[in-house]
Amino acid sequence: MWSPEREAEASAGGDPAGLLPPEWEEDEERMSFLFSAFKRSREVNSTDWDSKMGFWAPLVLSYSRRQGVVRLRLRDLQEAFQRKGSVPLGLATVLQDLLRRGELQRESDFMASVDSSWISWGVGVFLLKPLKWTLSNMLGDNKVPAEEVLVAVELLKEKAEEIYRLYQHSPLSSHPVVALSELSTLCASSCPDERTFYLVLLQLQKEKRVTVLEQNGEKIVKFARGPHAKVSPVNDVDVGVYQLMQSEQLLSRKVESLSQEAERCKEEARRACRAGKKQLALRSLKAKQRTEKRIEALHAKLDTVQGILDRIYASQTDQMVFNAYQAGVGALKLSMKDVTVEKAESLVDQIQELCDTQDEVSQTLTGGVTNGLDFDSEELEKELDILLQDTTKESLELPDRPPCYTNSVPNPRISDAELEAELEKLSLSEPDLVPSSKSPKRLLEPTL
To answer: Are 166 and 189 within 8 A, CB to CB?
Structure first.
């Protein structure tokens, strides 16, 4: 099933096949159903109605956006969506539904909602419709004629925003007033035709971001100074600045043309000298000198005009800075409306008083509760010193190493022979216990 998200993956180009759904070529049965006409009323079969509308309505809007076409006609859509020689029979109903939802708007209705008096050619192009269209609307018939122009509302708004950003980032934005012809040249890449350009201007005018005025047979456009600001009407200052800008451009073009003429006279004099035609060379040099004098005079006038424009631009900048300062002062006054030096000093005194009170409370609490027992700190210190001295004496009287009693516990692993040998040693060490060979038993008895 086709969805608007798939449009981003389609290839760009004039062929709408780049954004067609897969079933366009694969599912004959479904495409036959989608190319059939709608029922007279949705209540007859709401499922079929919604299925067709869900397919064609997004496809029409995506086609308009991909092609960059703000203006749509039923005939053009039928030709764009032809399939194997067949045209969708329900496109008129789809356009009626888009008109009802406000996603499309009749070009004539859009023109009527905006002051388009400055479009001199709009009477024959925009506003007049065939008699059958007018009669059908008066009689309540909402069918869309094949030649009637419809406007894609959202795409037109996006185009208007694009044109406004394009102007803001161009050299023309140095002054809010610009010639309509210059603006048209600037927007040629975004607006494929003159009608689209004028519709975009009308949308900007509807949003109160531009205003158009005809001055001495030439249309001039005034832009709002900021993206969220509303444009003010064209006044005498705007007209005067615009005339100065036009004079500057005219003088610049004249200086450039005369410079080329002076260079041409110089080349003619050089060729005449090479050909030996002295008089012709002199005439060419005189013409060159006269042209250079005219150029100097025009440069002086151009410098004067540019100086005036520079002062005007500087004054506009100064005015912007002044307005910013004024707004800042107003905001500061509002924020310090109830703040005075006396109130500030009183507030500081109150804070200091509260801090002192808190310190006193803290000192009182840290004194603690003694439960009626008063201890003398000097006596406690003396007692602690005595305890320390006693501890030191005890540590000095302790032996360096505890005695080891290795023979206190007999080793059960010693044999009888070893015991007799050790006993003999003890007997030899004592003079009264000298063993006798005649009575060994009597020697053993006392020792046991």
So the answer is: no
